[in-house]
């Protein structure tokens, strides 16, 4: 039932018998939202207030009751906090009402047993225990509502991030270097007209490149083998266009083909190396793409000996999107850095494949 047609809580009779949030999270949703740490300040607050209340009412206790009441109160506070952590881990209306009804039944059972022995019920202790009961029930209720809203907000945030990354992928698909496409088509047309031998091989490489890149941004991830095939096709096309101004090498260590990458992550680094390193240099230059493992991590490096970084380097849209998509796929286990070298530049993606 949608939120817009739900009854207000005051008109929903089920909320009077079994109060609590209606939202029920699946195990997948809880895992996706992550585990937020239990606020330790709550423990200090509860234990501190318990000790303060004992000090206030200590004068009303019969002689010899101080230590037993202290231990009983601290034990009750610890039990209430244990239930609160249980609700924090997986907040639900069912859990809240199980805890609430069990505590209420224990209170009523204890009161009946006490009165059944013929003891008169002291008013002040009864009021204190009843107040503690109502406080615990109210605290559990507020905690469950707060936790549900926190998880809902986190899931909404993740959904918004996913939508943003999906939009970025679609924009990237629509913006695959228009100048590269048009210039390549112009070169192919010229080579066909002049019967240049480069036309056939370049057209095959260009076709492989388009076949791989146009749909790739619709996927969440590509294997390293798929990404390297795209990079190779791109370099073959650029080799034909730039001729001797571009030299390149691609080296990869065996056993890493299944590594998952955001689509176009490595391709973006190669495109940047050519656009900002090789093409601005009259002499051209060399690009090396290396993938290897080091200390349990996988390093994907694109280096060139071209024009190098500017005095004030900054991330363009491609690098910023790549960083965001790396974080989405691998979290803090992946990072992208761009480093100056003499001559040229080094772009490096570091991934720890083991969570």
CATH class of the largest domain: Alpha Beta
The percentage of residues in β strands lies in 5-15%
Q: What's the arrangement of strands in the largest beta sheet?
A: 2-4-5-7-6
Helix content range: 55-70%
Indicate the mean pLDDT. Answer: 84
Supply the CATH architecture of the largest domain.
2-Layer Sandwich
> Rg from C-alpha positions?
33 Å
Distance between the ends: 38 Å
Instruction: Give the uncertain stretches in residue-range form.
Output: 1-5
Principal-axis shape: elongated
The biggest beta sheet is recorded as:
5 strands, mixed
Quick summary:
The chain is an alpha+beta fold and 355 residues long. Helices cover 59% and strands 12% of the residues.
Description:
By secondary structure, this protein is α+β, with helices and mostly antiparallel strands. It has 2 domains: 157 residues, no CATH class; 177 residues, Histidine kinase-like ATPase, C-terminal domain (Heat Shock Protein 90, 2-Layer Sandwich). The protein is built from 11 helices and 7 strands. The strands form 2 sheets. The chain has a 5-stranded mixed beta sheet, with helices on one face. It has a two-stranded antiparallel ribbon with strand order 1-3. It is elongated and about 110 Å long. The two termini are 38 Å apart.
């Amino acid at each position: 039932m949608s939120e817009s047609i739900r009854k207000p809580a005051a008109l929903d009779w089920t909320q009077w018998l079994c109060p609590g949030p209606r939202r029920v999270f699946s195990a997948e949703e809880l895992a996706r939202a992550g585990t937020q740490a239990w606020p330790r300040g709550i423990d200090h607050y509860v234990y501190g207030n318990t000790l303060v209340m004992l000090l206030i009412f200590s004068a009303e206790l019969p002689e010899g009751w101080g230590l037993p009441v202290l231990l009983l109160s601290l034990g009750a506070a610890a039990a209430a906090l244990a239930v609160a952590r249980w609700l924090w881990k997986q907040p639900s209306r069912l859990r809240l009402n199980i805890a609430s009804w069990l505590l209420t039944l224990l209170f009523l059972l204890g009161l009946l047993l006490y009165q059944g022995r013929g003891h008169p019920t002291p008013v002040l202790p009864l009021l204190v225990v009843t107040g503690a009961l109502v406080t615990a029930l109210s605290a559990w209720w507020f905690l469950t509502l707060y936790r549900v809203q926190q998880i809902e907000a986190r899931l909404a945030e993740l959904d918004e991030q996913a939508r943003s990354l999906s939009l970025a992928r679609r924009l990237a698909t629509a913006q695959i270097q228009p100048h590269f496409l048009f210039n390549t088509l112009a070169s192919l047309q010229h080579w066909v007209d002049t019967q240049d031998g480069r036309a056939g091989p370049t057209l095959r490489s260009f076709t492989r490149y388009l076949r791989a890149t146009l749909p790739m941004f619709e996927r969440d991830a590509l294997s390293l083998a798929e990404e390297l095939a795209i990079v190779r096709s791109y370099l073959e096309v650029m080799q034909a266009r730039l001729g001797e101004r571009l030299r390149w090498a691609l080296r990869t260590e065996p056993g890493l083909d299944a590594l998952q990458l955001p689509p176009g992550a490595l391709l973006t680094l190669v495109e940047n190396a050519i656009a900002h390193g090789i093409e601005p240099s009259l002499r051209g230059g060399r690009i090396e793409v290396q993938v290897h493992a080091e200390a349990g991590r996988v390093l994907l490096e694109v280096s060139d000996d071209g024009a190098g970084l500017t005095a004030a380097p900054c991330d363009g849209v491609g690098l910023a999107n790549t960083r965001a998509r790396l974080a989405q796929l691998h979290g803090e286990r992946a990072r992208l850095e761009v480093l100056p070298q003499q001559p040229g530049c080094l772009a490096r993606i570091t991934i720890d494949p083991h969570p």
